[in-house]
Amino acid sequence: xxxxxxxxMTAARAADSGPGELxxxxxxxxxxxxxxxIRSWNGPDNELGRxxxxxxxxxxxxxxxxxxxxxxxxxxxGDLGADRxxxxxxxxxxxxxxxxxxxxxxxxxxAKGLVSARPNVGTxxxxxxxxxxxxxxxxxxxxxxxxxxxxxxxxxxxRWTIEPLxxxxxxxHGREDLQQRLADMVExxxxxxxxxxxxxxxxxxxxxxxxxxxxxxNRMLEHLSGIVSAALHVSGGPVTGCDxxxxxxxxxxxxxxxxxxxxxxxxxxxxxxxxxxxxxEVEREVEREVDRVVPAPREH
Length: 300
Hints:
Layout: H1 3-16, H2 32-36, H3 62-77, E1 85-86, H4 88-95, H5 99-111, E2 115-118, E3 122-125, H6 136-143, H7 148-173, H8 176-195, H9 198-215, H10 219-222, H11 225-234, H12 238-241, H13 247-261, H14 265-292
Antiparallel strand pairs: 1-3, 2-3
Helix pairs in contact: 1-8, 1-9, 3-5, 3-6, 4-5, 6-11, 7-9, 7-11, 7-13, 7-14, 8-9, 8-13, 9-11, 13-14
């Protein structure tokens, strides 16, 4: 095993024990005891009572990040519909946070297109047509909410457009340094697969796809790399990479690297399309399992 592979495996295992691993899970998936402890929000418009403030131990972003996550999920899920007023004082009281935390959180949501703040009108939820649907947070919130099927289908369609093109361009760009790093990621995935290390395998997979887009030498494509990263994250995470037989996936990754080294643009594009077929098949299997079993949040 290379030094890089060993280092990445060790780092992945250490990072997985951190508090941020629960970030993707909504309050609806929290332990029953935690949900029961949340007070209801009195008043006719009690949608804000559906999601309670979670302890800082369950997230790695502090109170500000928690509030952004909670409100963002509620808006994207439809619990807070379009044109719904958001009163900072009520939010602060409900989630037991300061005015500063509320104000900064609403600014983040405004930058994502989820809310708007106007003089004499206040802060209101904006319609879906105004959302920045390419924002990684919004992608994740949609993918784990009621719009899950639509979001994953749209992400898959985007990947079929972005990644084969990136592979083709990368083969003609001749970036030997990036090609070597791509080969390293395939090596890491192979070692991780052999050891059943799903965490390292998934992270190496995500790094592979990010490097490939970088190797394309197209800065506009690079700006779309967050979409691919988000797609890998919400399409099953480690399940897509290593939790089940994936020798075929590993082989397609290796063929992409070989095509890049030989400058074979058509071969690189074809290998990427074959890899995406494998990803789609695994995603469908994951979705069938999700329909049968409601997943519980991870605990570390």
